[in-house]
Amino acid sequence: MPAKKRQGLSQRAYAEHRGVSHTAVQQAVRTERIPTFPDGSIDRAAADRAWAVNTDESKPDNSVSGRTARRGAKSAAETSSSPEGTGEPHQAGGWQKNRTAREGYAALLMKLRYETQTGENVKLEDVRQANFAMAKKLQGAALAMPEQLASEGVMKSRDELYAILDDWAIKFCEEMQAPVERQP
Q1: Which of 9, 43, 76, 156 could form a disulfide with 13 if both were Cys (CB 3.0 to 4.6 A apart)?
Q2: For 182, which DSSP code?
Q3: Residue 84: burial class (beta carbons within 10 Å; 0-12, 13-18, 19+)
Q4: In a 3-state reduction of DSSP, which class is residue 52?
């Protein structure tokens, strides 16, 4: 009786094509991550697409990913050209994810540069220096308060004392609103 002709590749032949162990292919077939013909053989093109979509590349070697533990061994997906034709490695969406992340970071850097050039962003050291200068100004005004009150005369009436404090508070607030000069 003549042997039946297979419709597709055997599991071992497909494993060799992918550059993975045959047990990884067996597991992919068992978990229905790749389709098979009714005779159990594998359609290479359909299985390659399904492998790329259904394989979790974040899993460690030899579990679900199907990569072999041999050093230097690369799967067919890792050695094929990217969809954009750049010749960079393509790993089941890994290239696209990395490219998207890279473009996102580049856009953020451009935004930061623009905001810095337009003055929307300031340097942390400039903010610290301005806060220090404001605190010194506040400290000087608070320490000068008793002297100013003594020069006005302590033994004034209550209404006169309120007027002196009110004038001093207004003057103090106006001084605090004045812009602080930057130190070079």
Answers
A1: 9
A2: P
A3: exposed
A4: helix
Q: What does pLDDT average to over the chain?
A: 75
Question: For 56-73, what is each residue's pLDDT tens digit?
Answer: 766 655 544 455 444 444
> For the whole model, what pTM was predicted?
0.33
Give the C-alpha distances (Å, rounded to integers) separating 147 from 18, 78, 154, 161, 170.
87, 79, 10, 14, 17
**Residue spans of alpha helices (H) in 43-93:** 44-54, 76-79
Return the number of other C-beta atoms located less than 10 Å from residue 74's C-beta. 15
Predicted local distance difference test score (pLDDT) of residue 174: 78
pLDDT above 90 as % of the chain: 10
For the chain, which residues make up each domain, given as ranges? 11-80, 82-121, 124-177
- Tell me the one-letter amino acid at 23: T
Please give the structure tokens belonging to residue 20: 């993975």
pLDDT value at 175 more than 60: yes
Of 64, 63, 58, 6, which is closest to residue 33 (Cα–Cα)? 64
Give the number of residues written for the chain. Answer: 184
